[in-house]
Inverse folding.
């Protein structure tokens, strides 16, 4: 039977055009509102901010390139039938004396641009980080071509937003006077803005140049995950890497997959700025975010009820739904396996266990010869909004255990503790047992229960479902019980 939900996640529903100092970008979104999928993403490196940094005006060639891309974007959106479009302009247009004239030319294309103030840009980027990292607490730094935005965030929201003229297009001129003068200039800017941070806080970093730095740091540290979103690194280690990178010429750097030449060329300048920021703000750790200004615009439009949803669960439900896993079935299995916990283990949040269950069930819908790589590809490589590196490792451990294996790659030990990984293995083994016994049917799940009683892991079955217990079920029960340090029994 045809499942129409299989394509529904890929229907474009809304778009954002971001007119930045370095690039002019169109992103089209679909999928769940809380964890939107990027269906189309293209940019033109117009470098609007370059001439603004030099003479205060938008250059003719840069403006023409930007307007040509905007005309293309407008036509693409019309052809796709997307009417929900948010167009924003930031530092370059904001700072240019001929910015108003440029906005008029954009309006002539049939678009309605909105010019963000420096504070609005900072707060909107912070909202993107809050959306990606629920409960985020620390400082958000968003580095663009024309400016650096800083804003404090905590569970009450964001405040103290400021915009500093420290974009990547301005950094070469600022560094020309030497590293000491460069550091003093930044320190003076922070002081004038009355900007400081609590030592030891988390510094959330946004922007393509900063993610390029993250990719460099990931290679330097042999990080097991290749998605820079959510990459975490201690401030001291990041500062050491930044110091060494700032002293290198762009021509000495090895290109990374997916990294443009312009990003590569800006890496030393970005590293120099990051080194000074770490010294000035004294964070305890750095966390890199793929969500920033554009996702902040989406976040600001979400109803409060949608904002309160867990982005990891929302994203996983949409993804596994494409693989034939019904959210209701996953919830039933998660409820059935709740007893499969390690004694004394700190209870992980239920949203992570539910996500692991959905992914485990989805692997069973994939042909067997493709399952071996799914733990790596789905848990460690796919971009999950709302998942920490430890969460990713636990998802991978659960998926591997679901295949019947308890051997884990050593790299997972860099991301999560042994106790966390053993807990996640229990989730995968329990999901395997439930699936084997019940066939993921409501009657099978409802006609049985998994309990712990007096050192025994009990599989209790009603007479009408007792016939479902076979050698495979008994074997899975024995493996799970052994993992939990219990004795297996069918009652």
């Amino acid at each position: 039977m045809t499942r129409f939900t299989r394509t529904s996640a890929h229907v474009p529903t809304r778009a954002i055009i971001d007119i930045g100092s370095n690039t002019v970008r169109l992103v089209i979104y679909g999928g769940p509102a809380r964890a939107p999928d990027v269906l189309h993403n293209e940019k033109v490196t117009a470098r609007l901010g370059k001439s603004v940094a030099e003479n205060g005006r938008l250059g003719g060639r840069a403006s023409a390139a930007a307007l040509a891309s905007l005309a293309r974007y407008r036509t693409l959106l019309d052809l796709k039938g997307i009417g929900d479009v948010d167009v924003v302009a930031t530092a370059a247009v904001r700072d240019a004396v001929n910015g108003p004239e440029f906005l008029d030319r954009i309006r002539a294309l049939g678009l309605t641009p909105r010019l963000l103030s420096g504070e609005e840009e900072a707060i909107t980027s912070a909202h993107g980080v809050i959306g990606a990292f629920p409960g985020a607490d620390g400082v958000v730094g968003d580095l663009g071509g024309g400016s650096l935005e800083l804003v404090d965030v905590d569970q009450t929201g964001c405040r103290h937003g400021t915009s500093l003229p420290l974009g990547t297009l301005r950094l070469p001129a600022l560094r020309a006077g030497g590293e000491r003068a460069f550091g003093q200039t930044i320190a003076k800017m922070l002081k004038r803005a009355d900007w400081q941070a609590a030592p030891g806080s988390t510094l959330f970093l946004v922007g393509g140049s900063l993610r390029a730095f993250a990719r460099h740091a990931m290679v330097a540290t042999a990080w097991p995950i290749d998605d820079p979103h959510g990459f975490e690194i201690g401030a001291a280690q990041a500062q050491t890497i930044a110091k060494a990178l700032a002293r290198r010429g762009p021509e000495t750097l090895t290109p990374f997959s997916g990294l443009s030449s312009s990003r590569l060329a800006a890496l030393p300048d970005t590293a120099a700025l990051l080194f000074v920021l770490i010294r000035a703000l004294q964070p305890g750790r750095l966390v890199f975010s793929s969500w920033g200004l554009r996702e902040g615009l989406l976040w600001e439009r979400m109803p409060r009820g949608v904002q309160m949803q867990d982005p990891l669960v929302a994203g996983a439900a949409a993804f596994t739904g494409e693989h034939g896993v019904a959210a209701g079935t996953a919830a039933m299995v998660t409820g059935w396996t709740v007893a499969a916990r390690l004694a004394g283990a700190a209870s992980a949040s239920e949203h992570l266990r539910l996500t692991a269950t959905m992914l485990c069930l989805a692997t069973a819908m994939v042909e067997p010869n493709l399952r071996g790589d799914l733990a790596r590809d789905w848990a460690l490589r796919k971009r999950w909004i709302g998942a920490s590196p430890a969460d990713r490792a636990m998802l991978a451990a659960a998926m591997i255990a679901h295949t019947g294996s308890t051997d884990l790659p050593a790299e997972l030990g860099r991301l999560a503790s042994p106790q966390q990984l053993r807990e996640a293995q229990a989730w995968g083994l329990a999901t395997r047992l439930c699936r084997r016994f019940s066939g993921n049917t409501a009657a099978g799940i409802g006609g049985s229960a998994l309990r712990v009683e007096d050192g025994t892991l009990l599989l209790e079955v009603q007479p009408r479902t007792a016939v479902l217990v076979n050698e495979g079920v008994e074997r899975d029960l024995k493996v799970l019980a052994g993992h939990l340090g219990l004795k297996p029994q069918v009652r």
